[in-house]
Amino acid sequence: MKWLIPLLLLTATVQAQPLQVQTSLSADSALRPLTTQQQATVWGITPEEWQRYLTLKQQARGVWSPGLDPLTTLGVEAESDHERQRFAELLVRQEYQRLEKELAFQRAYDAAWQRLYPGLTPLKTTSASTARVSLFVKDDCPPCDSLLRTLLAQQRPLDIWLVNSEGDDNRVRRWAMAHGIDAKLVSEHSITLNHDAGRWLLLGQSKIPVALERKGEQWREVLP
């Protein structure tokens, strides 16, 4: 009988070893970097396009636009209209899905606040913010002009979306000139001028004008 306990312990140790090895292998797999195929799949592109993106990052585009996402990088450096259109559509789909998730979380956050602290206004920081503001405006809109002047006076980084531009670059340029948008700020990317492509309906909930600021995964309205 005196050998029974050591024998049982030895058996238990031997049986436990494969589990320890399996756990170690699983941890190693979790820490392993994604393959080229996996990275490409995340963005909906081919492995060859992913390699081209990595190459472009090492060239002038990587210096001009550090941190640019793969789809925008490939779209800007596209070699044909068909290719450019494809990357644009991929980016729109990705942005739509991302915004849907962020808005769903925002709604859940607001509901949780009302449930846990009914009657209390959500806390807001009183310190000056330097986060970028997405401003949605239209032509011939005095309230839009007023909000624009306020944000420009605050020297906030602005992404301006002209809702009724109809994809017309000249229309955006005329609007910018009429509203005194500083070309230097545009060249420095402190201000960007953009055609709205459905973002207003998704984010602004049809309110015009509206200024929104991203806080982590949430969008908050910026009040003047």
UniProtKB/TrEMBL annotation:
Signal peptide positions on this chain: 1-16
Keywords recorded for this protein, A-Z: Signal
Protein name: TIGR03759 family integrating conjugative element protein
Organism annotation: Salmonella enterica subsp. enterica serovar Cardoner
